[in-house]
Amino acid sequence: MALISCIESTAAYFRLSPSDGPCSALKSIGAMANIDLPKSATGETVPGGLNLTTSTRPTSQLAVLFADVVGSTRLYENFGDDQAKQMIDECLVAMDLVVKQYGGRVIKTIGDEIMCVLPSADNGCLAATDIHHKIMALPMVSKVKRSVRVGFHFGPVIEENNDVFGDTVNVAARMAGLAKGMQIITTGATVACLSPMLRLSTRNIAALSVKGKGDDVDVSEVIWQGGEELTMSTSSIALNVKAVTLLLEHATQSWELDHGSVVLGRDGQCNIVISDRNASRQHARIERRRDKFFLVDQSTNGTFVSIPNEPEVVLRREELMLRGTGRIGFGHSVDLADTETVTFTVRG
Q: Residues 183, 233: contact at Cβ < 8 Å?
């Protein structure tokens, strides 16, 4: 309860102070966040996530926050379109008011979700906390209580045409994707930017693999309520990550991957260089997310995956979780004569 008092007292201070300045899980969040893989001047993904072009657009340090209403699909099923939309709109209005209270602005709203920016890590943390309190205070409808999940991250963003872009936006969206109902998830880097009092209201969960990031990201939860309910909510994300590795074999070479990602393609800078003319320069990538490995196609001709005793799968700008052992073909079936393939084996 002392931690909650810290948050409430700090929130009260911010309410009386002038603003610091103007300002299924990832499907819509990804669209709101403008998430895109880094591109080179030719429009292809650059190995290792490096961007060969230099941006001259101005950057700002902002907290980017995503929040969405939990179980909106069920609301539409149970209450019908009109009443469900009204219930969700009430949540969106409440969240918008909180964001403005802490000196921020809503960048966009899609369906039951908002993306917004706030001037500091503290303002982001306090806004996230107050959003939960405001939603909990809304009256129940037919004994149904509404809730939201929130993720935010503080860092540099590019501001353009009343929108924001950059890695900070992508990471914030990933944090929202990790959050469960009635949770606030942020990064260890953001926690380090909080004032000492607010830092006491957080606890580290784990270093997790996050889609699109080469290294594990320290993930933390903001504690905004007490009791067993919080403990249950936290345990749902703080899962033990299994020790798994991925063995990749190509021609006479082999690689063992236990974290991060690799890029496969014809470009000489790829981690695994494919000579097949049907392969794109950066044809595909394999990345670890928590205790799983995913193959992501980013090619022109598609990526073919063959697993014993199963039909061959063709990925076209899609992704597939790798399991067991199998072969990967680039631009055509692995069963064609003299096809260049990469063999994979998931261990653990």
A: yes
